[in-house]
Amino acid sequence: MADLTRLGRPKSVAVRRFRERLIVGSLAIAATFSIFVTLSILVVLARETLIFFRFPDVSLGEFFGSLEWNPLLGAEKHFGIWPLVSGTLLVTVIAASIALPIGLVTAIYLSEYAGARVRAVLKPALEILAGIPTVVYGFFALMFITPALQKLNPALESLGTPESPVSFGGYNALAAGIAMGIMILPIVCSLSEDALRAVPRALRDGAFALGGTRFDVSAKVVVPAALSGIVAAFLLAISRAIGETMIVALAAGGLARLTANPTNEVQTMTGYMAQIFGGDAPAGSVEYQSSYAVGATLFCITFLLTMLGQYILRRFREEYD
Amino acid sequence: MATPRSAASRLLQNRAFLWLCLIATNLAILALAILLISIVWQGWSTLDGDFLAQRASRKPENAGILVPLLGSVWVCAICGLVALPLGVGTAIYLEEFARRTRFTRFVQTNILNLAGVPSIVYGILGLTAFARMFGVFGVGADAGIQLGDQDSLFYLRLPFGSSVLAGGLTLMLVILPIVIISTQEALRAIPPSLRSGSLALGATTWQTVWGMTLPAAVPGIMTGSILAMSRAIGESAPLLVVGSALFLMATPNNLMSDFSVLPLQIFNWAQRPQAGFHDLAASAIIVQLIVLLAFNGVAVFIRQKLQKPLL
Q: Is the previous residue joined to B159 through a cis bond, with omega within 30 degrees of 0?
């Protein structure tokens, strides 16, 4: 006969209910932690940015109005955010113009054309690319891409003028942009592929039945149907590029200036923050506090991009089921 | 409407696009190959047992990665010990308990937003909240409260300063949204019939979660968690902000020790002018990539072996 006592006395409903409440309560506390994190980010950025704007030679008008950013050099300090924003934009545009087309085409290939064997090679390769730490991309940009670009310098000489030479220095926007493009490629690719695969098979079958080639089906049916997901993937990748620090800190340089020339040294918002927090300014000084204002700007930009991505996903999602 | 193009031209177009696909795909693989080969080429010769066992040095031939390697282990262990329970708990609450109210929708949106916050911003938060504790314990090197002996394992001080604990908690903030989102996905993949069966037998919601849903979701949760941890191992910008030590001789011996981590050691060496240090950076990258590959390998293994189809 089985030893029924070993199974233990069934717990009373009251005990069970109490235990349940306790567990659900602690899980709910865990869930509110994420809100607490967001609030702390907002409070910290706002407080420290306010301290920055209380310094005598700083004003909101200059921050958004001046075209100069030179807190660390020069007799007269200028705090105009635009050179840092333009540096970020330049590197991001280079990265996006590499990663978005290649990523989308690769995603279409993976989802619509490739067989199981190709996928078995390609997916792990993309996962490895996605897992490589960004500092490695920065090292690659500095040690490999830049020297390779510098080999082009003799050919580029005729393009420049003495005032604005076109020649790659040890730090330049293009090398950082290329490395960043490789970094965000897997994000674009895997998220776009998810969106493409979510398109129901019936749509493809219908298009094939009408005599479409595989390209017709992909380009005229599947991609439009998955467009909201693809655009959201693009936005996410762009916001990752904007927020990326180590690549630009290593390879883009440390000179904030307004330029659209990719051979130039530029400083991005994140690059400036890395420079300051890496120990180039004493804590509490105006330069130090300025990095919080830059951080707040960065946070706002990436926040808007994330919200836009979510809005597009919600608003323009095509539902077929 | 335009006249329909001939079948031949559409087939040609299809073929051309296929070529474009192959070129794009091969570019991605080529980039990966060049990256790996160039780094192994540069770093292979300086990668040996001494390199793993030596500490910081001003001479490249005497420098090694013992201190940052152990620093990475400490920081990531703290990060994982806090982030995984917190993240999995949040996901369980959101998926299994919370009703779909305006509040839970807000929490959900908030988590998606947190996932998009640049890691360096988390560094700022970690610096202020953990390293300095908003200045409530005073500012400066000797301000604050000290508990226990400086050399003991249980030494604690408030604020945490630029310590292993502050670094680990900061990384926790970075990977928390990733853990939550991947756990939610793993839980969503469990068929509702499993839950219904358990509930029909009279189990409470928590008993259902603990006895049915969670065990079924463990492979998915583990895969997501391992990938989140591999993100933590490679993350460096937030730790740069929190203030890792750049030239450190002592390995961590308690939660308040100064720290350095492998990715920041790579960053530091890559910035130096001497070529000797660049080779060391490449060697350190090889070590870092081997660790990451091992992590990813375990994740792939779990995904393929343990994940049995339900239903």
A: yes
The reply to whether A136 falls in a domain is yes
Smallest Cβ–Cβ distance between B114 and the set A34, A135, A144 belongs to: A34
Residue A267's identity, in one-letter code, is: Q
Q: How far apart are CA A107 and CA A126, in angstroms?
A: 11
A145: Cβ contacts below 8 Å, ≥ 6 apart? A175, A178, A179, A251
Interchain pair B234, A131: CB under 8 A = yes
- Asked whether the beta carbons of residue A16 and residue B204 sit closer than 8 angstroms, the reply is yes
Contact assessment for residue B263 and residue B235, using Cβ atoms and an 8 Å cutoff: yes
What is the C-alpha separation between B66 and B51, in angstroms, rounded? 8
The whole-number pLDDT of residue A78 equals 82
- Comparing CB atoms, the residue among A44, A127, A213 nearest residue B124 is A44
> Is B124 in Cβ contact with A292 (below 8 Å)?
yes
The pTM assigned to this predicted structure is 0.90
- Give me the CATH topology for the region B44-305: MetI-like fold (1.10.3720)
Strands (E), B184-267: none
- Domain CATH number, residue A235: 1.10.3720.10
A135–B267 CB contact, under 8 Å: yes
Domain span at A156: 62-316
Buried b (16+ CB within 10 A) or exposed e, B255-275: bbbbbbbbbbbbbbbbbeeee
What is the tens place of the pLDDT at every residue in B247-261?
A: 777 788 778 888 889
In this complex, do A243 and B120 lie within 8 Å of one another by their Cβ atoms?
Answer: yes
> Which DSSP category does A158 fall into?
G
Q: Nearest CB to B107: which of A35, A122, A216?
A: A35
Q: What is the pLDDT of residues A52-63, one digit of tens each?
A: 998 887 888 888
Q: Give the count of alpha carbons within 13 A of B275, CB side only.
A: 2
Judge if A182 and A34 occupy the same domain: no
Would the CB atoms of A144 and B34 count as touching at under 8 Å?
yes
A84 touching chain B per CB within 8 A = no
Q: Do residues A141 and A31 share a domain?
A: no
Same domain for A121 and A45? no
CA pair distance A272, A253, nearest whole angstrom? 10
Residues in a beta bridge with B258: B163
* pLDDT tens-digit map of A167-184: 888 899 999 999 999 999
Are residues A132 and A42 part of one domain?
Answer: no
Q: Do A31 and B93 touch (CB under 8 A)?
A: yes
With an 8 Å Cβ cutoff, is A305 touching chain B? yes
- Give CA A79 to chain center in angstroms: 25
List the single residue in A34, A128, A246 with the smallest CB-CB distance to B90. Answer: A34
Query: Are A70 and A192 in the same domain?
Result: yes
Question: A290, A49 in Cβ contact below 8 A?
Answer: no
On whether both A145 and A49 belong to a single domain, the answer is no
Chain A residues within an 8 Å CB radius of B122? 41
Burial class (CB within 10 angstroms; exposed 0-12, middle 13-18, buried 19+) of B290: exposed
Provide the ipTM.
0.90
